[in-house]
Each structure stands twice: as C-alpha cells, then as structure tokens.
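On clarity, I found the account of how folds are encoded harder to follow than it need be. What matters is that the chain and its backbone geometry are given together, residue for residue. For the editor and my fellow referees, an illustration may be useful. For illustration, here is how one protein appears when written out as sequence plus structure tokens:

___
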Amino acid sequence: MAETKTILSLCDYSGAWCEPFRRAGYDVRQYDLKNGDDIVLIKKPAGSVYGILAAPPCTHLANSGARHFKAKGDKALKEGLALVDACLRIVYATQPAFWCMENPIGRLIHYIGKWQHIFNPCDFAGYLSGAEAEAEQYTKKTCLWGNFTMPEKKPLPPVLGSKMWRLYGGKSERTKAMRSMTPKGFAEAFFLANGNN
C-alpha cells in the first residue's frame, strides 16, 4: 500500500488552497497563527513532505499598503519578512517534490527576487461552474515563487473588475480574511497540475 503523501499548508487559515489535496486523501497539515501555530516556531516534521503551499500575510509587504509603510517602520517589515523566511526555512529543511509561495505585488521582490508567475483569479475561473465561477471573475494580481508546475489557465472575462477593493476595503478581520483567501479556481487548477504526480 502506497504511503499517504504529506502536504504542508503554511499561513493558511481558510484552507482554501489545500482543500483539493485534502479531498483527494493527502495528509494535509494546515498551520496558521489563528489556530495557535506560529510558523516561525514550527519544527521540521518527521517523515517526508511531498508539497508545501505557503501564503504568508501580505499586510506589511503588498504595494496596496505602501502608503502606510513609512508610518509602520522597519518593525512591521521585519515581522512580515520573518514569516516569509520561516516558510522558506521549512522548504529548505524538507526538500519537497514541489513548493509554492504566493503574495501580491509588493516588497518581496527586493528580498527573494522576482516571481516566476503572476495571475488573477479570473484566469482560473473556468475550472469552476455556475455561481462559483461567476464569483471569481475578478482581478487581483498574485505573484508565485517556488518549484512547481504552473497550471493551465482557463480564463473567464473579469466582469467584476477589482472586486476585493470594491467590496472588502478597510481593516476588519473579515475583510482581511476575504482578501487573503486563495481563489477556488486557482486551488483546483494547482492541484490538478501538481497533485496527481
């Protein structure tokens, strides 16, 4: 009997990105500070790791918050980079078959280099149907770094425009959660490209 492959999903409160792996029977280990798991303190897991999904918070890194960078100072930047560093440390320690880290366009380019790929949710909305597909016909540029197979795009027109800015402005926890959630279409496409190897 084949060993169940392990997926680490880092800085992942919603579980949206790792859900297709979980449904397929992978051993998904989901870590997020809101669940009491400080990524900076996570130790190297025992056994082999097949894949890593990493979505460190963009609060102190994304260009969308650039007007606040000066007021926040270096402490906030260090806090954001510490989470990115922790994700990369876990990648280094486990040497998975694939890994991917996502973050919006922002300051990370100056610390870990340029992204390999960039996408909008509407690029993968065609993997869904009905209301789910319609809900993802929006733009929100997201950058991807790592060692993974980029899924084939199945775009639908971005008729909702920049939905996240329109519907989820502000600083509430619900707003932050909605803006940071991995699009379902991308999650499904990513699984199909990387999870069936």
About this structure: The first helix runs from residue 19 to 23. The chain has a mean pLDDT of 86.
